[in-house]
Amino acid sequence: MFHVERDALLEAYLGLVRRWAPKLDLVSPSDLPRFRERHIEDALRAAPLLADLPDGPCVDVGSGVGIPGVPLAVADPARPWTFLEPRGRRAAFLEEVVRALGLGCRILQKTAQEATAAGETFAVATARALAPPEVASRLLLPLLRPDGAGLLWIGRRAEAPPGAEVSAPGLAIIRRDHLSTESPDDGGPEFQ
Fold it and tell me: Parallel, antiparallel, or unpaired: how do β-strands 165-168 and 144-153 relate?
């Protein structure tokens, strides 16, 4: 039963993307025919990993069109999700997705730095196509509570940030409790 409902919600999401992408410049027109395979299915590769990450609220940083946040929120509806997206049109699209799918998700139209300054913290933070892996990890870490974990889509050929666990091809986990000190070189985190 759950997979039938999940698939129906993901199909409705795909319909919203196809409807609004050309009007709002959400994704490349060449990506629309393969959006399910290239984006939704790629996001869902991380769904089994969520069970091994800390319980509690999740944030999708730089959510854009909602990848990976929307598919993961559909796959794990018990977790509260926040979609962090600074661009107005994309944040408005995410509001429509949440409304249309009946998801209990929150949209914050802020950057990661603004959310950190506002004191937002989460058990899990995700990032896909946000920035190079090491930069993305530096954006996620301040948003994590002390026992929190970040889940990064790093690409199949990219290098994982120092200290990250590569849990599947192209996916890396960073853990806040592995953070030790500030790096003297650039003020960024150093991992144990």
Answer: unpaired
The DSSP letter of residue 14 is H
Domain segments of the chain as ranges: 2-191
The class (CATH top level) of 2-191 is alpha beta
pLDDT tier at 2, thresholds 50, 70, 90: low
Asked if residue 68 has a cis previous peptide bond (ω within 30° of 0), the answer is yes
176, pLDDT greater than 90: no
Residues 6 or more apart from 39 whose CB is under 8 A from it?
27, 31, 65, 67
Extract the tokens encoding 5: 């409902």
Q: Could you write out the DSSP letters of every residue in 49-84?
A: HHTTSPSS-EEEET-TTTTTHHHHHHH-TTS-EEEE
Q: What is the pLDDT of residues 64-123, one digit of tens each?
A: 999 999 999 999 999 999 999 999 999 999 999 999 999 999 999 999 999 999 999 999
Q: Give the number of other CB atoms < 10 A from CB of residue 63.
A: 30
Q: Is the pLDDT of residue 181 over 80?
A: no
Q: How far is CA 166 from CA 68, 86, 101, 153, 156, in A?
A: 18, 28, 32, 10, 11
